[in-house]
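Reviewer comment 2.1 asked that we show a complete input and output for one of the modelled complexes. We chose the 2-oxoglutaric acid case, as it is the one discussed in the main text.
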Amino acid sequence: MKPFHEIEAKELTPRSVCSAMSEDGYLLIRAVLPGSAVDPVLGEVMQVIAAAGWLLPGYDPVERMANNGAACGDPDPEFKRTYQEVFNLSAFHELPHHPALRRAMKMLVGDHMLVHPKPIGRLIFPQCDRLTVHAHQDYRFMGGDPECFTAWIPLHDCPVEVGPLRVLEGSHRLGIVQHEDQNLHVPEISAADTMGGEWAGGRINAGDVLIFHSLTVHAAAPNLSKQLRISVDCRFQDYRRVLNPANLAFAGDSGKSWDKIYSGWPSQNLKYYWKSLPLNLKPSISELRELATNAEPAAMRTRYAKILSQVS
Ligand SMILES: O=C(O)CCC(=O)C(=O)O
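Response of the prediction step:
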């Protein structure tokens, strides 16, 4: 594996970020976020995790020492319960809007920037192979316009043995790659190692941000340590480009809703910020109305109706 192509945040320019993205499909930006932005989020997440019994007693929660007897991950019900509590934290949603990250992402996306409102938290137990995220392209899950970019943000220093992300350099140029989905909870690219290009990886520290194109193939390294690996990933695009409205809503059976999530937030600032932007939804609101009435099978009508009720 080759080392990441990296740059210090203070040296970042629109030209350097755009040329790295077009050549390699990713860039590791060092020292984007200050400790004062990242550490409190880790603190709040670890309080939730400690209360769930996922940590060994006798350690400070921010040491993240895992109680492997509690190991779980999506779609285990105990994982979903705890994950929902993390997702409800307003601090978790504020991080992708930090001015330093916005500044870096605007160099890539331009001024008409949408920060997707559903960041993903990764709470990865160590020594648990089934919880490692395998090779995939985010476009497979996001749809919309491929000119969409992910920022992967560890909430603590992440040496290779703790399982940071790695990327297949230049793979954004392969176009949309076939994912296997039979018998898999999460579709993956089983042929990633034979697709050409070289994997790039290495240590990613708290405050660093790994950014990559939605077609860049990437995977997590296995977490071989004794500690949980905690990170946030979120997506950014020009809001004039096509956006799949599923990225704004909760279409599953979980009963999640923005009203419930927002109810515990101390500030109004980020509540429904995305509704005030002139988004280019595909399907559009009128197409969603039609799909909610006529799509087949019935489960798809239900799904579209849920999305419609949350985005309109
Ligand atoms: O953090 C992980 O384990 C996976 C993250 C990922 O696949 C992503 O950010 O798209």
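The first strand starts at residue 2 and ends at 3. We note this here for comparison with the apo prediction described in Section 3.2.
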